[in-house]
């Protein structure tokens, strides 16, 4: 009977250690730490949206993302048609009125809504991303800017928009839960 206790203790420690390793390996990757901030822009014809910031330590670059619905502001039949529309509606002009497209935009799907994404140069140190997606006749405008190159700002922004909390909020804001 005394000989079985060391065996039982060894088995208990081994199983506990394997469980801990399995739990660590199977855990989802830690998400970047985005923090909601106050909507920084003056009031206009649309309701204020939501604003978020992620620092360089968490996201690899300093980046801010601004999202807001614009009900009834989209072509009900065609959605977001072209890059000119992204330039007009994505709210990049609220960050600064001086922005220049870096290249043609791309077709994108965000939270089940089709639209377009485009990168902009704000100055030599900052870049922005403009996203306009639609559901029926409603538009979701997303503007982001960061201190890194456009590809990194785009990657951080899209990763943020894939999060369950933001996808849920966008669906609710567009009233199609």
From TrEMBL:
The keyword Signal applies. It comes from the Bacteria. Keywords: Signal. Residues 1-22 form the signal peptide. This is Uncharacterized protein. It comes from Bradyrhizobium uaiense.
């Amino acid at each position: 009977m005394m000989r079985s206790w060391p065996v039982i203790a060894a088995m208990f420690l081994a199983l506990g250690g394997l469980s801990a390793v399995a739990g660590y390996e199977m855990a989802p990757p830690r998400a970047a730490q985005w923090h909601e901030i106050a909507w920084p822009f003056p009031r206009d014809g649309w309701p204020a949206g939501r604003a978020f910031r992620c620092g360089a330590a968490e996201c690899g670059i300093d980046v801010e993302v601004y999202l807001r619905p614009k009900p009834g502001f989209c072509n009900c039949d065609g959605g977001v048609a072209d890059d000119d529309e992204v330039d007009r509606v994505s709210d990049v002009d609220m960050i600064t009125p001086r922005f220049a497209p870096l290249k043609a935009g791309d077709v994108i799907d965000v939270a089940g809504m089709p639209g377009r994404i485009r990168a902009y140069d704000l100055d030599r140190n900052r870049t922005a991303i403009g996203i306009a997606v639609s559901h029926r006749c409603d538009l979701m405008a997303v503007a982001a800017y960061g201190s890194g190159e456009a590809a990194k700002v785009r990657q951080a922004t899209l990763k943020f928009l894939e999060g369950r909390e933001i996808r849920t909020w966008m669906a609710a804001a567009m009233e199609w839960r």
